[in-house]
Amino acid sequence: MHARLNMLYVLVISFILYLLSGMIVSASTVEQISCGGFHSLALKSDGTVWAWGLNIHGQLGDGTNTDRKTPVQVKDLRNVAAIAGGVWHSMALKTDGTVWTWGGNWAGQLGDGTTKSRNTPVHMNDLCGITAIATKGQHSIVLKSDGTVWTWGRNSYGQLGDGTMTDRHTPVQTRALANIVSIAGGGYHSLARKADGTIWAWGLNKYGQVGDGSTTDRAIPVPLSGLDGVIGINCGGDHSIVLKNNGVVLTWGFNQYGQLGDSSIAGRSTPYPVDGLKDVIAIAGGGDHTLVLKSEGTVWAWGGNNPGQLGDETAAARGVPALVKKLEHVTSLSCGGQHSLALKSDGTIWAWGLNKNGQLGDGSTSNRNAPVQVISH
User: Fold this and answer.
1) Which of 40, 89, 193, 311 satisfies CB 3.0 to 4.6 Å to 352 for a cystine?
2) Model's pTM, two decimal places?
3) Cα distance between residue 8 and residue 5, in whole Å
4) Average pLDDT of the residues in 57-70
């Protein structure tokens, strides 16, 4: 009798522990989000990465080339500390300082020495000691612990900063940069912030997105004048954004859709403050729009809005900031080509804008002009 009771006791305890372990796993929350051109990424607290949206080049990393309307787990990837989405590819930084890439690779943007696209992550063997990653176009950027910047991929406008306009299939060191603390990549240009607070830029400059007062492409980074107190940098497709320590945002570059937020559609080749905006704590640039997060947890948006990427329940472009509807308690945000993501303090992800390939993750392919919750897994 006692033996049977003991056995039952063991079975009950084992079952409870099994349930608890399942609860612990399922309780892992989202810590980071990143938009690619037409896909989305999320990093969970358990170190796993999840992806959804366009997958024609394997940028979701699930071993297929099938679009996904809800999140799927990136295969064979654990202990991830940071994620970044490019227009056709994806990147992950592990806690051990190694970099992993997957997706489109015809310009060498995966950095594995080939031009073969991959639908599962590949390890960048020649890179270690990496502290930050960035991508938005078809080139990739990493920051090493020694303050140097390394790049690879498309280089048709000098966006790799190595003094050439030659695509690179493996990492090359960006010239003229040292003591860098943060990096950002745009469609065809790049930004870096030094420890002394100076901002450096390089790449395509047709629309003034480098910010040096010219429209001359730069294959070697140039310092930008008139900027101080910058604590955040970000790039859109063809525009640039910085956040100052007083909560003010400055922008420059292409402005056809009002993405600079200065109430005009005139481009600028030097930084200019966004109209009537303060108390900002985070910034993000999309293909033709811009998002900012205020200290109160609200999100504001401006620029192109045809599929609803501003989240203001309209399809009208805006040249000044507008409040994203039905969204509060936000802790971080990200912009894609024409879609947007926000992470709330409760760990839920909200998305809006273009959804042709399922990049909003709500189980549909319907565009949304106001935030909808991404289906969780």
Assistant:
1) 311
2) 0.92
3) 5
4) 98
